[in-house]
Every structure is written in structure tokens, then in C-alpha cells.
Specification:
By secondary structure, the protein is of the alpha+beta class. 30% of the residues lie in helices and 34% in strands. The protein has an eight-stranded antiparallel beta barrel, surrounded by four helices.
């Protein structure tokens, strides 16, 4: 499947509480009716990795079987109906298409952990192939040793929504039992090893935040 990620910021003068209410109680239902949609996870931002305001207010993730199907849907009236709702809650969004590589999953059944997201960009003069290879073949081996880590997923970018260059090169997604478990992990000296490896091999200035996931639709089981 192909994943479409939307990183969203709330409308001017809208409180985070009002945005969360509208996103969950209005927009979820509208977007979940898009044709061919296989899965939809809405992530409401909680904090940045440093504990202050997150760089985005939400992270929506929608799944279809192919890029061709996504393109056909986004040219139709169903997406126009969904898009027309966006001014009611957001003043900007960044969207990218990616693959999804599951590298660890030991989340206990019936739990709802928080998800840490790092938006990754390759360093200057680094090809995407080199970036992807280092991330998956070297950096991941270190990242999987992160304290309190329950799940790790790599999402290398494919393209922007309009078949142009993706705004970022990928998303690293890491799950923790709770916000407290993430904070405990993030304060651990081990993260200095992760940072040193990241800053030495990827571009500086990654965006990091933690979200609470809402599974809106899942037709992939079985």
C-alpha cells in the first residue's frame, strides 16, 4: 500500500482544543468516506520532542493500494468535498507519499501507545538512494536499541502529492507505551548516540513531535 501523510497546522486564532474537536468529530467522518481508502489513522499532536508546542497540530495518514488510485481520487469530486472542509480547521498542510517498512512491533494487543514522529531530510549532496541505504541498513540498527521502544517504522518518501519532489525524505515513527515512557526514554543518555549518528549522516534541523493516534478506518486486516 501507499501512505499519504498530511502534516497540518490549525487555522489562525483557533485553539488547539477547538481544532482537536473539529478534526475528530467532523473531519474524520468526511475523509473516511473517500473511495478506495483502505486505512485511516488520525494523529493529534501532544507535544514536541522537547516538551513544548509541536511543529504541527495533526498528522493524518491515509492508505490506498497504489499511487494511480490516489491520483484518480484526488482529481474527483469526493476529494474536492473533503478539501473544501479544510479552511474550517487548517491554515496549511504539507503532504507526501511514502512506502511503509515495519522493522519492530511488540505493542501489546489492546493498548494505545503514543507515537513519536521525526521528519527526516538527507544532507547536502547525498542522493536519496544513499540516504535510504544508510537509514535502513545502519541507523535503524542503532534506533532499535532505544529504551522503552515498542515499535519502529521507516517511511521513505516516494513523491509529493502532485508527483513532484517530496517535501521531506521520510518519516521515522517510534511508539512508546505512554507519554511518560517517551519522556523517560528521551531523557536517557542513549539518545545522544542517536543524535550523533543522525547529525553526522543526515541534514540538521529535523522536526520531532509526539501524537496520540485515532484509528478511524482499517480494511486491511485479514
Amino acid at each position: 500500500m501507499i501512505k499519504l501523510t498530511g502534516l497540518m497546522n490549525r487555522r489562525d486564532l483557533m485553539t488547539r482544543e477547538a481544532f482537536a474537536d473539529y478534526y475528530v468529530n467532523q473531519n474524520f467522518a468526511l475523509a473516511s468516506r473517500l473511495p478506495g481508502l483502505r486505512k485511516y489513522v488520525g494523529g493529534l499532536s501532544l507535544i514536541s520532542a522537547n516538551g513544548d508546542d509541536p511543529p504541527f497540530d495533526a498528522c493524518s495518514q491515509l492508505y490506498w493500494e497504489s499511487i494511480e488510485e490516489i491520483h484518480s481520487i484526488f482529481l474527483g469530486r469526493d476529494w474536492n468535498r473533503t478539501r473544501s472542509d479544510h479552511p474550517n480547521m487548517i491554515n496549511g498542510r504539507t503532504m507526501l507519499l511514502s512506502e511503509e517498512i515495519e522493522l519492530l512491533d511488540r505493542v501489546p494487543a489492546g493498548t494505545n501507545p503514543v507515537r513519536y514522529i521525526a521528519v527526516l531530510t538527507r544532507k547536502d549532496a547525498m542522493t536519496f538512494a544513499e540516504f535510504r541505504s544508510y537509514w535502513l541498513d545502519t541507523h535503524v540498527e542503532l534506533a532499535l536499541q532505544t529504551p522503552n521502544l515498542l515499535r519502529y517504522r521507516a517511511c521513505p518518501a516516494i513523491a509529493g502529492l502532485n508527483d513532484d519532489i517530496a517535501p521531506f525524505d521520510g518519516l521515522a515513527e517510534m511508539w512508546f507505551e505512554s507519554l511518560d515512557a517517551f519522556r523517560e526514554s528521551f531523557d536517557d543518555p542513549f539518545w545522544e548516540r542517536l543524535r550523533d549518528d543522525y547529525y553526522g549522516n543526515f541534514a540538521m534541523g529535523r522536526l520531532q513531535f509526539v501524537v496520540e493516534d485515532h484509528l478511524v478506518l482499517d480494511q486491511t486486516a485479514g
